[in-house]
Specification:
Strand order of the largest sheet: 2-3-6-4-11-12-13-14-16-15
Helix content: 25-40%
Number of domains: 1
CATH superfamily: Alpha/Beta hydrolase fold, catalytic domain
Distance between the termini: 44 Å
Order of helices and strands: HHEEEEEHEEEEEHHEHEHHHHHHEHEEEH
Shape: globular
Strand content: 15-25%
Number of strands: 16
CATH topology: Rossmann fold
Structural class: alpha/beta
Length: about 475
């Protein structure tokens, strides 16, 4: 790997990950005091587009359904054509929703964002995918109800359904729910194949794809662009990536060494965790969010809480003495280091899907242009996984890989002075004002298309996509 040092040490707390579920003693010194969910939802809703009342055309791409009513939403995509009618070989925006891989849904109704792109000739497709907490099922050719199969990872990172009877109900993670990420990526690949196979009916050009998303949606888009594309480059082309509140390396709930290393690159490995996390975010960042009743454990249909592992974090770091304050970023790397599993193991192959920094650096797909804007620079559980330092990591890897990029990021604790850009741009995001730094190997901000537009705004993202595709568009 180019950017990540191989994991060579084995954290005792990870190695002894041997107690799962309700049979384990519930040791939690802090989380019962937390009530973050409402605050996080409020934070997440800032600046979201308004609905505009047009129903999306639902098309089911996968076989999986959920619940007693066999709801197919999470294996469906929703299509929005321009109001003028279905086009021919139009550029397409494909959106993968945010939600940390554990919640939220595709857009079943149009928004000001879909209308903006539709009004400029784009087809917009919002994609659903299976989220980790839910137990899905399907029906075989004889109409027998079957539980969802486990998804295996091949040596070349391709994904396939297990044919030996392994199910997700049998899987026990070492640390957290991101260990079942192949399930989401498998769905994303199937959704993209559906779009490509039905390109003529959809009225789109599969070689003019724009992926748009935030948070977990970025990870899905990166997988399709920099890993899945390797084996299917003649079938589709991703021209633009539009990311807000971007994530790069996984896991981030909890953070393991690969995610912490991004902070070390931006801030220095010896920097204290004070100013990066706080008491409210510690259980999610140093511990496992699936163990929190408000974020998982009490309502999830799968048991993805390693209680022993999590309890160790709560006792030693996220405790009433706020012992995490004594840690540096390098300490966080070491205590949450992912072990060096055998080469052909599932755990080792997960790293290829997790470490998107490496996937971008090693990719030969240099036709795509990258747009990233991260502005949450607090210490709460919403801010840390979407930190401006992560946007800065995108700038570094894109520059290394000679990928065209535009990256915006707000100031953050321990930021190097030379990362404060000469051009600083203020933006109104849902009534809150932020000042962004700007890095790019393009001359985007001097283009007429960028004039008067705020970083991260739908209008700027749309105009950037149009500019890269050579289209004449209007932000109003």
């Amino acid at each position: 790997m180019l950017f990540l040092t191989a994991a060579i040490s084995f954290c005792t707390a990870v190695a002894t990950a041997d107690c799962h579920g309700t049979a384990c003693p519930a040791v939690d010194l802090l989380q019962r005091k937390l009530s973050l969910q409402s605050a996080m939802k409020s934070e997440a809703k800032r600046g979201l587009p308004e609905t505009t009342g047009r129903a999306g055309i639902q098309m089911q791409y996968g076989k999986y359904v959920y619940g007693e009513d066999d709801n197919a939403q999470d294996n469906s995509l929703y299509v929005y054509w321009p109001k003028t009618g279905k086009p021919v070989k139009a550029p397409v925006v494909i959106e993968f929703h945010a939600g940390g891989f554990v919640s939220e849904a595709p857009l079943a109704e149009s928004t000001t964002t879909t209308d903006l792109f539709n009004g400029n000739g784009f087809v917009v497709i919002s994609v659903g995918y299976r989220v980790f907490p839910n137990s899905y099922h399907y029906y075989d050719e004889d109409s027998n109800r079957k539980e969802e199969e486990f998804v295996n990872i091949a040596e070349d990172s391709s994904l396939s359904l297990d044919t030996n009877g392994r199910l997700y109900k049998d899987f026990v993670p070492h640390v957290g729910y991101t260990e079942v990420l192949p399930k989401v990526f498998y769905d994303a690949g199937n959704a993209l194949e559906f779009v490509i196979s039905n390109a003529d009916y959809l009225g789109i050009d599969p070689h003019n794809i724009v992926f748009m998303g935030g948070s977990s949606g970025c990870g899905i888009s990166n997988y399709l662009t920099f890993l899945y594309h390797k084996a299917h480059s003649n079938r589709f082309s991703v021209r633009v990536l539009l990311f807000a509140a971007a994530q790069l390396n996984y896991p981030v709930e909890p953070f393991t060494d690969a995610a912490w290393r991004l902070f070390g690159q931006a801030m220095g490995a010896d920097s204290s965790l004070v100013g990066i996390i706080d008491d409210s975010s510690c259980p999610y960042v140093l511990g496992a969010s699936a163990c929190d009743p408000e974020r998982g454990g009490a309502t999830w249909e799968y048991e993805y809480c390693n209680t022993t592992w999590h309890a160790h974090r709560m006792e030693h770091y996220c405790n009433e003495e706020s012992s995490w304050m004594n840690l540096t970023i390098m300490d966080a790397v070491e205590i949450n280091r992912w072990p060096d599993y055998p080469r052909n193991s599932y755990e080792k192959r997960l790293e290829t899907l997790w470490y998107m920094e490496d996937a971008i650096a090693e990719s030969t797909n240099h036709d795509v242009a990258l747009y990233v804007a991260n502005y949450w620079n607090g210490t709460d559980a919403m801010s840390v996984p979407h930190h401006p330092a992560i946007a800065l990591a995108y700038a570094h890897v894109a520059r290394y890989s000679e990928i065209p990029y535009v990256v915006y990021y707000t100031d953050f604790t321990y930021m190097n002075e030379d990362e404060k850009s000469d051009l600083r741009i203020s933006a109104d995001l849902g009534g809150d004002y932020y000042t962004f730094n700007y890095q790019s190997n393009l001359d985007w901000r001097n283009q007429p298309e960028a004039a008067g537009l705020h970083p991260k705004s739908d209008e700027e993202q749309m105009m950037f996509a149009c500019w890269r595709l050579g289209l004449t568009c209007s932000p109003v």
